[in-house]
Amino acid sequence: MELTITQPDDWHLHLRDGDLLQAVVPHSASNFRRAIVMPNLKPPVTTTSAAITYRESIMKALPYGSSFDPLMTLYLTDKTHPDEIKLARESGVVYAVKLYPAGATTNSQDGVTDLFGKCLPVLEEMVKQNMPLLVHGEVTDPCIDVFDREKIFIETVLQPLIQRLPQLKVVMEHITTMDAVKFVESCKEGFVGATVTPQHLLLNRNSLFQGGLQPHNYCLPVLKREIHRQAIVKAVTSGSKKFFLGTDSAPHERKRKETSCGCAGIYSAPVALSLYAKVFDEAGALDKLEAFTSFNGPDFYGLPRNSSKITLKKAPWKVPEVFSFSFGEIIPMFAGETLQWQPFFK
């Protein structure tokens, strides 16, 4: 059995920099035509000039002949100026601005501490420039249970934001709860969308603890209850245009995952398309896969759909146990397991 679809894009990707960038970018470039690249480096990508420099580094790391196009983002801070949004739009390489609540996830310490008090002029300029805001949707109050942080963020930040700036395009990244599904479905189409990862479609929070602590299933936002996973699967396989592919593939060296205080992030780039196909196949919704992987994202961003094609074949293959590099090892999602779908390029 095989299925030919328009080549997908990845609307939420971490490529890192330095040796990690060199190691992982071929995996994304071999599967996806474009990707929205996250700006949470050290130091973060807070300016258009820094985004241009980072893009140049990515282009140099691509395999020879690759047509992969990295779409850059800016890291929103309390000090971001509205003029930077104008520069970003004029650059032709920056496509969105990322909101990290300070302390929410990897390298988010420079993120926003008071969105309405310190960033409103920037958000208003983003409306003028039609520049989407990409949201890591979790509150960081230590008094809030980690499993409730997305729900509380929707209630206290996202709903007030949409009410205040209804023309602002917002992507709620890597949604993890039925609360997020309901919120996105309630919003006006074309103004609020959501990316969905393979892990939040296939795993629940039991996957963190089965057989012992599983560091390679640890990500932020953290995996949730099974009822939330089922709600997300139902949403993405429904045919709704509001949900689109965003792997949140986030590589870390093995030694930084398997340690006393391990990093958050799942490396899914090498297996993502196989896993999304698995989800849609098991839901009896393969006819909806192409829209989710290849149409909804570019349509939301106002970009053309890709003309290139890929073929997904039902051809069992075993995921490598590990990817080894000169600097260390990276463990992929579903390491050592057999997957049924495999992408091939025309």
From TrEMBL:
<dbReference type="GO" id="GO:0044205">
    <property type="term" value="P:'de novo' UMP biosynthetic process"/>
</dbReference>
<dbReference type="GO" id="GO:0046872">
    <property type="term" value="F:metal ion binding"/>
</dbReference>
<keyword id="KW-0479">Metal-binding</keyword>
<dbReference type="Pfam" id="PF01979">
    <property type="entry name" value="Amidohydro_1"/>
</dbReference>
<dbReference type="InterPro" id="IPR002195">
    <property type="entry name" value="Dihydroorotase_CS"/>
</dbReference>
<dbReference type="InterPro" id="IPR006680">
    <property type="entry name" value="Amidohydro-rel"/>
</dbReference>
<keyword id="KW-0665">Pyrimidine biosynthesis</keyword>
<dbReference type="GO" id="GO:0009507">
    <property type="term" value="C:chloroplast"/>
</dbReference>
<keyword id="KW-0378">Hydrolase</keyword>
<comment type="similarity">
    <text>Belongs to the metallo-dependent hydrolases superfamily. DHOase family. Class II DHOase subfamily.</text>
</comment>
<dbReference type="InterPro" id="IPR032466">
    <property type="entry name" value="Metal_Hydrolase"/>
</dbReference>
<keyword id="KW-0862">Zinc</keyword>
<comment type="pathway">
    <text>Pyrimidine metabolism; UMP biosynthesis via de novo pathway; (S)-dihydroorotate from bicarbonate: step 3/3.</text>
</comment>
<dbReference type="GO" id="GO:0006207">
    <property type="term" value="P:'de novo' pyrimidine nucleobase biosynthetic process"/>
</dbReference>
<dbReference type="GO" id="GO:0004151">
    <property type="term" value="F:dihydroorotase activity"/>
</dbReference>
<feature type="domain" description="Amidohydrolase-related">
    <location>
        <begin position="10"/>
        <end position="319"/>
    </location>
</feature>
<dbReference type="InterPro" id="IPR004721">
    <property type="entry name" value="DHOdimr"/>
</dbReference>
<protein>
    <recommendedName>
        <fullName>Dihydroorotase, mitochondrial</fullName>
        <ecNumber>3.5.2.3</ecNumber>
    </recommendedName>
</protein>
